[in-house]
Records
---
Amino acid sequence: MPRGKIKLENYVESLSILEPNGNVDAKLDPKISDKDLLKLFRAMLLGRRYDERMLRLQRQGRIGTYGPALGQEAASLGPAFAMRQDDWFVPSFREPSAMIYRGWPIEKLMLWWGGNEEGASPPEGLRDLPICVPVASQVQYGAGIAWGCKLRKEDHVCVTFVGDGGTSEGDFHEGLNCAATFGAPMVLIVQNNHWAISLPRDKQTVSQTLAQKAIAYGINGIQVDGNDILAMVVATREAIDKAREGEGPTLIEAVTYRLGVHTTADDPKKYRSEEEVEHWKPKDPLARFWKYMKKKGLLDEKSRDALEEEISAEISAAVARAEAFKPDLTEPFYHCFEEMPNHLRAQYAEFQAYLDSAGMSESNSGAEDQQLSRNIEAY
Ligand SMILES: Cc1ncc(C[n+]2csc(CCOP(=O)(O)OP(=O)(O)O)c2C)c(N)n1
Ligand SMILES: [Mg+2]
């Protein structure tokens, strides 16, 4: 076979609509209704204030480790807005704005970060998976769910989230190849926040973009300004439409920046410069959206302050509910087996006896009220 060249048609499309000064590219403006814009702005502000409150709760020892989504709100909220409520949503761990927008009670997210399993059960009726930390595992779940939708001839799409660091994992490649090969209706949002803990994006891969990884799998890929709520809505809408029409998956690289710590367990000053963070601050998605809303005459300082108060009260009420929640400490025993095997029964009995002796059975009783536990008598 002679030496030749196989021609590939490849380029990476890019998209940005809302400038950091709040101006929009009129040709690309998705013309979202005023009502929806206000709803979206409220959701982004709520996501930001939730994030800040969670950091404070962690510092006060009231929740466990927390991974903030500061600066990344648009990258998940845009897709959440573009989806249908009955579509599937597979988050990673920096999508609280989207999860709250989709209907997760705030206290559930608080419980999750407090180490409580109840925070992992999706609210009734939502086709959502819970917060999920194992890096890139989400792509496997997303591909499988999307393929399942196709096999069942359902018209749901599965919107899935992974980070820039996740693109180096086997799960990412296996999941994406599977979704591509089976034409599964998955929209994969890669939140490129430029860091994977202390590893910068340019040491993660020598690929010029993350979006171009789509080319290798023969699917659509686009690089989007992930701090631009309008661009994220438009790109996800288009990808969802394609997926629903049977055109398979799309990879959306959402270019954003992690303005805060990786989690409350690290100190980014050890590995990145203040200048870099300062460079990204003017691109903050919330500041940008606020300027846009103000220019459009949809919000002013007074109405924004009123919104702030309302949101603050909403979050405080959720904190109170989360802290009043009584966990069922025996709940982990119920999840692995349809019928509890003997060795687990023995451990269950031992644990129950410990709770009794430590006077903790009482605090365990809330579970029944909350209909969380299965009836152990049944075993
Ligand atoms: C399979 C796996 N390996 C390692 C970790 C530890 N870990 C948690 S977050 C993280 C970095 C992930 O980076 P990225 O995918 O860019 O997401 P980001 O944290 O920036 O949102 C690592 C290595 C993990 N959770 N799962
Ligand atoms: Mg990252």
Note: The chain has a mean pLDDT of 94.
---
Amino acid sequence: MIFDASGITDAAQLRSLYDFIHPVIRSLGPSGRLVVIGADPDAATGPGEAAAQQALEGFVRSVGKELKRGATAQLLRLAAGGEDAAQSTLRFLLSARSAYVSGQVITIKGAALPAARDWEHPLHEQVAMVTGAARGIGAAIAEVLARDGARVVCLDVPAGDALAVVANRIGGTALQVDITADDGPQRIAEHLRSRHGGVDIVVHNAGVTRDRTLGRMNETEWDTVLGINLVAQQRITDNLVESATLRAGGRIVALSSMAGIAGGAGQANYATSKAGVIGLVRAQAVQFADRPITVNAVAPGFIETEMTAAMPTLVREAARRMNSMSQGGLPVDVAETVAWLAAPTSAGVTGQVVRVCGQHLVGA
Ligand SMILES: NC(=O)c1ccc[n+]([C@@H]2O[C@H](COP(=O)([O-])OP(=O)(O)OC[C@H]3O[C@@H](n4cnc5c(N)ncnc54)[C@H](O)[C@@H]3O)[C@@H](O)[C@H]2O)c1
């Protein structure tokens, strides 16, 4: 179901939302999709329109929580000129690829789009680098980007042969670097330039937890998490952009976390780093807009990986159930979201934080 509410300019007109959706909402099938199209409330011509357009957010978030059997609800806001740029996002939201994404508000801005659009292989001829690609979410991201046509450089710390296995499986290459090393950013940029002439897509996925309540947390636990999850990311991006290794039309997608939005007991270090990622992405989206490079964050909720397998059983089981889908997400759910944001056709999406959390009950 798609309802275009972008022309609603005062609260009384919100009744049309009820009139259209109320009679049919109970017949929305398993894994059904509801997308409400709205306008940017910040660009409203007056308080009535701003209220009505903001109201759509409450509507979509509530309906998302009511829908059962894998159905999702989203609000797609079209900023000025965003109509043409909305197609890649609509395709994603209406497809099975957004299975674990619900209750999200995504704004599309006007942007120059590629002339040729290959929806089967949207990343054809793109070079992508994924950090932390040896396992878990990073391995799934590498796999999905390769499926979509990208040549993928899989980066991880030098350890074992897991990285080479992933790289070989997807026809990509492996790059062993500790992203926190002093010369890490430089080595990465040099590798991308000498082997591929540059890079188009950068996915900052490598991340760690060192959970402990703040009073018991030692300095190393703080420094390690901030260093890997936030500081290294900024250094790598700065180097890639300043050296023009990340080409015009480039895409940066960073892994944040629901913890960075809602906080988490025992996760002051991790939540600090992941909230920092959100701040970084929003500022860089503005900073790099004229290149034009887009910068977005994906904030996963509970995803079934080795990282979450290490959680205490009760906490893990609660986390699995505390969302509208009543189940954990899979690495591929995050990977599909990254692939959508990484596509040349997603030029209108920047500075956004998209949660892949099955509409987690905490943190909105
Ligand atoms: N699993 C979840 O539920 C979840 C939820 C929210 C956010 N995330 C985020 O998603 C990302 C991936 O999580 P995951 O569950 O797949 O984790 P994981 O622990 O399974 O994998 C992380 C990978 O990053 C690599 N890595 C760690 N430090 C590195 C360094 N210094 N240099 C290079 N590589 C390094 C590790 O070797 C590992 O292969 C992380 O940023 C994490 O914070 C995960």
Note: The pocket of nicotinamide-adenine-dinucleotide is lined by residues 131-132, 134-138, 156-157, 178-180, 205-208, 228, 255, 257, 300, 302-303, 305-308 (CB under 6 Å).
